[in-house]
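SAMPLE LOG
Freezer: B-3
Tube label: C17
Construct: single chain, 302 aa
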Amino acid sequence: MATIRSQKEIRQRAPWWLAGLLFANFALMSYDARENSTKQRMIRVWAQTLAYPVQRVTSGAGGAGLGFFQRLGNLRGAASENEQLKIRLAQMETEARDARTNAAENERLRSLLSLREKSNYKTLGASVIARDPSLWFDTITIDRGRSAGVENNMPVVNADGIVGRVISTSLWSAQVMLITNEKSGAGAVVGQLGQSSAIGSIRGLGEKGLLEMRYVSGLEKVAPGDYVVTTGQDGVFPAGYNIGEVVEVKSGSATQAHVIHLRASARMDQLKDVLVLQYHPPERSASDQSLPNAEKKPGGQQ
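STRUCTURE (predicted):
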């Protein structure tokens, strides 16, 4: 019985053994076979041929993935670099703005120093620490007061021209009325047209930083661009300081004075540093002349 079973099993397994032997023989033949042109073993050629599609797909996918991650990394690097460039640009703009501000301040201080050196009067440098809240800043406050020798009615100037006069003082500060203030007419500035001998009274208009020059004869030649300087006759400002430039003239006649508008030489909206002139106008001597028939009273009074 066992013998019959083993013969049956042998007959059943015989085809598999035959297939295995044939496959082994084929493998040996393939391994030993070579390509005529390259002399490479055929099995290697077939293996490469079968592996090519898989390698191509995996290589393409790997390359695409690698390229994607490289591009992603590049984008992140570019974004970081752009942010750094923006920060650097902002820093450079700030540095350039500070440089321009410092240059303007240095120029302003040099101008004030030059004016101080040329002045025939003692001067006190001061900084503007407050402004009137009105539109055209009718008054300003400076950081010098009685302790520094500032007194009421002292003139205040800068390198461009006259600014105003001191109207009140404290121990450490003083208030200055600008010449553009409408009320400055109470202490009117007497100005002279630089191109002629014409003299007029200057008062502020209180708007757009303009001044008005009055009482100039309609026969005088006046044109926009003419400049006006102080005469020293007002008892506040010494002679020779710029007041402003003519910007508008409404011509008068032989019987009617010109209407002249000036733009102040000093930029009232940009005041930062000024000079207080410790100037006291010369006292006006009393007239020693009297009418021949005037009755003289005791004590020299008439």
